[in-house]
C-alpha cells in the first residue's frame, strides 16, 4: 500500500474522524503558526512533539503509518538544509559562517510545520475538508481543482498498480536494464491514461451542463466547545513556553 493511500485510510479510521473538520483545521493551523513564529529551540521542538503526541495518542493514528508518511518530507528538509548551509564564493565551495544556526532553524521550523500538517492529513479525510474550504470562502475554482485531483489520484494509483503488476508478470523487472525500460514505459502509460481520464471527465461534465462543480451533501459533524477550548489553551501554552524559555 502506498503512503498516500495509507494516510487516507488512517484519516478515515482515526479516532478524531467524527470531530468537526473546522475544529481540527483550527488546531493544526494554530500549530503551523506556532512553528513559524516560535524560535527553533525550544519552540519548534515542542510543536513537533505536540503534533506527534496528538496523532499517536488521542487520534490513534498508527505509528507505522505516521512514520512512513513523514519519510519523504524529512528527506526533502534534509536536502534543503544541506543546500542552505553551503556557500559558493571565490575560494570555492564551503560552509556558510552560520551554517549550524541556519540548518537548525530550517530543520526545526520545517519539521514542526510538517508534523502539524500531517496531523491534519491523518485525522481528516479530504472529502471533509472541501466543504470547510467552501465555508471559508476559498475560491470555488481552487476547491474544484482540489476535488478533481483527489478523485483522479486513486484512478492513477490503480492504473499504476495494474500496469506494474502486468510488467512484473512479464519479467519486466528481472534485470537493471529491463527495470529502467519498464519504469519509463510505466510513467508514459500512466501519464497517457491520466490525460485521457481527465479529458473524458471534462467532456462528460460539460455534456451534462455541470458549470458550477459537483455538489454533495456534507456530513454534519458538530463543533466541540471543549475541544476548541483545550486547543486554545494548548496553543497558548506552547506560545508562552516557546517565547519565555
Q: What do you see in this structure?
A:
By secondary structure, the chain is mainly α. It folds into two domains: 3-132 and 224-244, no CATH class; 139-207, no CATH class. Helices cover 74% and strands 3% of the residues. It is built from nine helices and two strands. It has helices at residues 3-13, 21-37, 40-56, 63-84, 99-121, 126-135, 140-169, 176-207, 225-244; strands spanning 86-89, 92-95. A two-stranded antiparallel sheet has the order 1-2. Helix 2 packs antiparallel against helix 3, helix 2 (21-37) runs antiparallel to helix 5 and helix 4 runs antiparallel to helix 5 (99-121). The longest helix has 32 residues, at 176-207. The relative contact order is 0.15. The mean pLDDT is 82.
List the keywords.
245 residues, mainly alpha, 2 domains, two-stranded antiparallel sheet, 9 helices, 74% helix, Cobalt/nickel transport system permease protein, transmembrane
- Tell me the distance between the termini: 42 Å
Number of helices: 9
| Quantity of strands, as a count | 2
Strand percent estimate: under 5%
Largest sheet: 2 strands, antiparallel
How would you summarize the topology of this molecule?
Elements: H1 3-13, H2 21-37, H3 40-56, H4 63-84, E1 86-89, E2 92-95, H5 99-121, H6 126-135, H7 140-169, H8 176-207, H9 225-244
Antiparallel strand pairs: 1-2
Helix pairs in contact: 1-4, 2-3, 2-5, 2-9, 3-5, 3-9, 4-5, 6-7, 7-8
